[in-house]
Amino acid sequence: MRRGLVNRYSWNSCRAFILFCSVLAAALGWTGAQAADMATTETVTLTPSRDTFVHSANPGTNYGAEESLLVYELNSTAVIHAQSLLYFDLNSLPPGTIIDRATLRLYVTDLTNTQPSLQIDQLLGFWDEASVTWGTRPQAVNVYPNVPPPTQTGWFSVDVTDLVARWVHQPSAHYNDGLQVRGYSFAGAGITFSSREGSRPPELIIDYTPPATAVDIPIQANARLDLDGLCDSTGQGEYAGGAHYRYVDHEGAVSDLYLLQDATDLYICVEGIAVTDPERSFAVYLDRDNEKEKYAESDDISLRIRVQDGETSSYVGTGDSVQTYVPESIDGWEAVARVGEPRTLPDSAEFRIPLDLLTARCGTPFGLAVFHEAVTENGGTYGWPSEIGPRFPETWVETLLESPPCPIRVCLDSATACTPAGPGTQVFRVADGRPFNVDALGYVQERDQIFNGDALWALVPMTATQAYTVYYTSGVTQTVDYAAFNATIPGEMTLVATADQPLMLFDLVVSTEWNLTPAEEDALLVDLAKASDYLYAFTDGQAALGQVIIYQNLAQWETADVRNWANNRLRPEADPGGMVLAPVTDPVYSDLTYYPGQIHLGSHWNRFNTPPGQPIVLNGAPVDPSTLADDRALALAHEFGHYFFYLFDTYFGLDDEGHVVEVDSCTGSAMGWVYEEKNWAFVADPVHWVDNCSDTYAHRVLPRHEWATIQLWYPWLRTPPVISAAQLTPPVPLTRLSVQPPASPGTPLLDPTFNLLYQNGETASREARALIIRDDRVLDQGAPPQGSTQITLVGPQENDRLCVVDINQNDVPVAQRYQYGCEEIQIGDNELWMERDTTWAPIIEPHPVTSTTWQITVTQPLAAGLDLKLRLYPEGKPGSTGADLSAGDIHTATVTLPEVTPAAYIQVWVDETDTEINPARVAFIDFGIGGGTVPGPASFGEKAPVYSADGVFEFYPDATVELVYGEFVSVVRYLNTYPLPANTVLAGAPYGLVAYPASLIGAGTVHIRYTPPGTNGMAGAALQAPAGEEVAIHFWNGQAWQPLETTVTPEPTTGQAVATARGQGPGIYVLLVVDPDFGRVYLPFVSR
């Protein structure tokens, strides 16, 4: 404590010393305490119980029934006066009340001249409204001289705080008989006020602090205060963090009390008016069982210190009405007193009391009273919460410690027969997520950091694998309070973790294809955390992510659970059961094998699969981008259903002929349309599954409800009792996210947005794509927004080579593009020149010859003397392989790779002059990228189809084939294709299938998603095709386009449709629309 503080005194202590203290406070600079004032101020407005006026000219007349109160002087010679009397009943204020402010309000109805001032007196005797007259009025003493009078009609206010404080704080010395308002001697002035019988009765507005009835004592960990008797609460003083209360002391003054606890002791520091009586003391009374007996019993104790000499004594209750307390030695407590100076410095005392002395049972409330005793010659005693009788309290404050020292224990299965929770157990404080460890007996450590009112939740690890840890939890959060410490074991709070309350935390490794910027890092962390919370909701609070480590720039790429691609149009995709470390056969359906796999996630995703910045229109209205903010997190949580829980999709089905049909009846399934809250669950009801989900693809693959599948793999999880699709959130953040710094950070660009200098007034078409080449590998950027001339790149660095290719030969004329451009990125240059050449539209076709050898064919007329070159970049890996293509209009080359490559980019360019404003002709295609491949060892079949990276093209084989290492099936996204039949246009890009060996692509169905004419979809297209066209999938048979019998299935939820036809093996597939007018532009794809 700070010593020598002689001028700290509370201004509130001065309220009864009206003239003296106002001067002294200014002279000494007294300030109020800075500890937290825990008492609350209340306000009451009283009207008079009695009021009247008396008139000197009519000394025997009573005016108690009048509607007015008069204050005036008739003239200076006759000295005729009218004075008003008012009485306000203060008995509604409880004993111990502290008056903070009191205001008398009178309503002026008439003014005759203006008096120089008013005077307010305290009446000294009883008077009766119905009988009092000038001749019988009681005596009075002036309290407020020279009160400025009102100057106009209306409400008139006077501060009467000190008078009301006298009545309330010292009722025996200053009995409330009311007050008197009179004028100053000045002839001819008068004031008329409304009486209580009038329309606006007088008011006494009192702001007051009622006595405390229940308090919580705050904790200051590791406080261990040095006792010196000083209540230092200012600034960084020892009681600055304590609770501050006030009490009515000697002569009606207001003194201060401070309460604080640490891990082992309660500290009480109390101040009081200094007097000269040598027997004066401070005392702390403890009602240890909080039963508030009138006469203290044996569990009640009193601890005292005499101020004059610091002698301490202790007492215990007897229950006797005469000798209520008797002396008895009580060990462990300490007290120090500081002698004050009358009128200048208060007496004070400081107590340190062990917490185990406070209550008979830990965690229960106790009664507390603190008193300033033997202050007057006749033994007057004052204190908190109110003045007491002879040597014992008549009122108590019910008190709780903010952090009682009672133990908190974590048990398994039962609180009464406790099996202590084992190593690794953590108890979380819900408010801030802070974890607390437990000891070998299950008791929570750092107990002094847990406070009353804290909600707690326990997590007990039971089993752990490389992929996940299974925990038992304590279920619903429990609050630290009196009930918790007396629920099962007296004085001990128990958190019981049981097998009925399991939780699985899946660990995850994420690898990004690029180095994250701070903003991208934040966005990824937010989406991962949200995806974890959504998974928690889907599983009825039984699963979430645990430790998630994010690597950058392809670090840990091959072994990562989640591959985060730079591509801004990559559809999220996951391998069902992909978390397995080795192939596993379904326990029930032996024809279904799960292989190790990954989750594929793009740098951006929304349910419409548009690039960032692409305006979206649905059903004729623009879509608010904020409504899509959680789409990537929701999609990722959906993919967790595949990856962790071996589940399949419920938003579509396949009919007996393999045609895709939309299914919207399977509600309550997160494997369906996950963007609606009604589906934030997994189906547990077998009747609901059969009635509403039997048409889904999931049921076709696994004819059992989703929780049956989940419990087949994780039998310790419980089936939710009902379908409960809602945003259930974990009580504390469960996911521990960390980002590993990149091994080679490079030189990132401060501004990743590039202007694309399109020629001929054109803008980006729906088929434009952007790529970065760095360190002999491709960083696919996805696409610029359709209709724009800008793109915001992902992970660009100085000296990268940026290429944008927008070649779309087979669309309607207004949508055709022949533009391309490449240049090395330099800091400060954010423009890319786009060259336009209508003769450049190569058809690039890859054909696997062996598992490592590819034959590439390029159909493109080329002037004599020019050479065509190619380079093949394996996806996600450095180390490309180049080749020279043969001469002629059909160019070929054979590329042998060092390893099996089922996914790659192929770059083709003309070996010619290449400058920023005159770039060499260039083109790109890809196969198998973004998860668009099934590489062996794996199952390939109806239950394991292959998708394009953007989700537009799908192929479902009729029969399942087991692929061995070196075999693969991949989707190709072509740049251009062979001339189309007359009066047709291409609805999107050409796609195709390649495989090694080619026989892997047998009978099956091809599906192409598109936005049909006449519907509303994404903005960006100038027009829509007219109704009535025929839509059909065509296959290039090597000589001509072969139309296939096509079925179109609408998807009303997105305004899309799916075209389905029987597959024809490896080759190129297109969706063609017959359009004899060639005057419309088709909307781009939207992938669901």
Structure explained in plain terms:
This protein is mostly beta strands. It has six domains: 42-209, no CATH class; 212-401, Sandwich (Immunoglobulin-like), CATH 2.60.40.1190; 408-413 and 423-486, no CATH class; 505-723, Collagenase (Catalytic Domain), CATH 3.40.390; 753-836, Immunoglobulin-like, CATH 2.60.40; 970-1088, no CATH class. The strands form 13 sheets. Strands 26, 27, 28, 29, 30, 31, 32, 33, 34, 35, 36, 39 and 44 form a 13-stranded mixed beta sheet that branches. Strands 2, 3, 4, 5, 6, 7, 8, 9, 10, 11 and 12 form an eleven-stranded antiparallel beta sheet that branches. 50% of the residues are buried.
Provide the CATH architecture of the largest domain: 3-Layer(aba) Sandwich
| Secondary structural class | mainly beta
Radius of gyration, whole Å: 43 Å
| Beta-strand percent range | 35-45%
- What portion of residues is helical? under 10%
Q: How many structural units, i.e. domains?
A: 6
User: Could you tell me the number of beta strands?
Assistant: 73
- Main beta-sheet strand count, sense and barrel state: 13 strands, mixed
CATH class of the largest domain: Alpha Beta
Low-confidence stretches: 1-34, 1014-1028, 1078-1088
At the fold tier of CATH, the topology name of the largest domain is Collagenase (Catalytic Domain)
* CA-CA gap between termini: 69 Å
> Number of DSSP helices?
7
User: How would you describe the shape?
Assistant: elongated
Q: Let me know the average pLDDT.
A: 88
InterPro entries: CBM96
Organism: Litorilinea aerophila
Domain Carbohydrate-binding module family: 43-207
Keywords: Secreted, Signal
